[in-house]
């Protein structure tokens, strides 16, 4: 079986590791409050965007999921640097990406619940 070309392996290494590092940085920055509520990075749902307290609660609760997703991308990138066949390389990249997406979806759901816990309830009008 033919090994994947070196240039492709290096490209995947750089892209996947950089993506993982960025995810980990973002998880830590949003959970610590350094990365404030914004429209570009983080969990951006109606409940998390409702206020700063909701944003912070969501990201503190989901930090570990985002970090695990970032680690999965880094490991996937390191494996991609190995002299693997195209099928093995594709499997490694898909596995790492699948873990990352699963962690981010789970984190978004959990973060949304955490945000809703700190949003003050809206009183319903009495009839």
TrEMBL record:
Keyword Transmembrane annotated: yes
Keywords of the record: Membrane, Transmembrane, Transmembrane helix
InterPro entries on file: SdpI/YhfL
Top-level taxon in the UniProt lineage: Bacteria
TM ranges: 6-27, 65-82, 88-108
Protein name: SdpI family protein
Taxonomic source organism: Leucobacter tardus
């Amino acid at each position: 079986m033919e090994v994947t070309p070196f240039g492709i392996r290096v490209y995947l290494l750089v892209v996947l590791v950089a993506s993982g590092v960025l995810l980990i940085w973002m998880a830590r920055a949003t959970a610590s409050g350094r990365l404030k509520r914004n429209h570009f990075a983080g969990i951006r749902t109606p409940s998390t965007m409702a206020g700063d307290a909701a944003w912070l609660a969501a990201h503190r609760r989901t930090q570990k999921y985002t970090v695990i997703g970032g680690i999965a991308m880094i490991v996937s990138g390191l494996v991609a640097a190995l002299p693997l066949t195209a099928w093995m390389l594709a499997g490694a990249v898909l596995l790492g990406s699948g873990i990352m997406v699963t962690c981010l979806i789970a984190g978004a759901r959990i973060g949304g619940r955490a945000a809703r816990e700190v949003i003050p309830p809206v009183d319903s009008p009495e009839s």
